[in-house]
Amino acid sequence: MNGFEIYKKMDDDVQAIYRSRLLTEILLSLNEGSKKLFQLREITESTSQALIPKLRKLEADHLIETKEHEYFLTSAGKIVASGIADSFVTFWTINKFKHFWLRHYLEGIPSPLLKEIGCLYESEVLKDKGMKILNVYNNQLKMLKEADHI
């Protein structure tokens, strides 16, 4: 099965998470560690009345659990939240360097490395400032020629 076929089979669950700002924010915040309801309210800038039904849905889907008034991801929830976080980091990286990705030949990048493009989110694209690429080399050669001894 390819990604599209899997998406069609899982459409309700997957789409519900990506369509709902609260579901996404809850999973992403719990991906960083367990949280109490008041912390989730602060992070999501939502009310308890808005959060509780979303928390119950995530519990019913076995993505989160609660223990002593604290919410945390289940093992399955960690996998899902990590995948969601990765997808957002990838989108961020692509948008941040859109001019770079649109002008470069990507077919030469191995598929496993393309899946890790999100790891570049803190990087910078350096641009040529019109300097001659061999200037450093030529200057070093000049210094060697003019040196009394090496």
Low-confidence stretches: none
CATH fold assignment of the domain at 3-90? Arc Repressor Mutant, subunit A
Instruction: Tell me the structural class.
Output: mainly alpha
Beta-strand share of residues: 5-15%
Give the averaged pLDDT, no decimals: 89
Per DSSP, the total helix count is 9
Order of helices and strands: HHHEHHEEHHHH
Number of strands: 3
CATH homology group of the domain at 3-90: Winged helix-like DNA-binding domain superfamily/Winged helix DNA-binding domain
- The assembly state of the depicted protein chains is single chain
- Shape descriptor: elongated
The percent range for helix content is 55-70%
Report on this model:
By secondary structure, the protein is mainly α. It has a domain at 3-90: Winged helix-like DNA-binding domain superfamily/Winged helix DNA-binding domain (Arc Repressor Mutant, subunit A), CATH 1.10.10.10. The protein has nine helices and three strands. The protein has helices spanning 3-9, 11-19, 21-30, 37-44, 48-60, 75-96, 98-103, 111-114, 135-146, and strands at 35-36, 64-67, 70-73. The chain has a three-stranded antiparallel beta sheet with strand order 1-3-2. Strand 2 and strand 3 form a beta hairpin. The radius of gyration is 24 Å and the shape is elongated. The N and C termini lie far apart (65 Å). The mean pLDDT is 89.
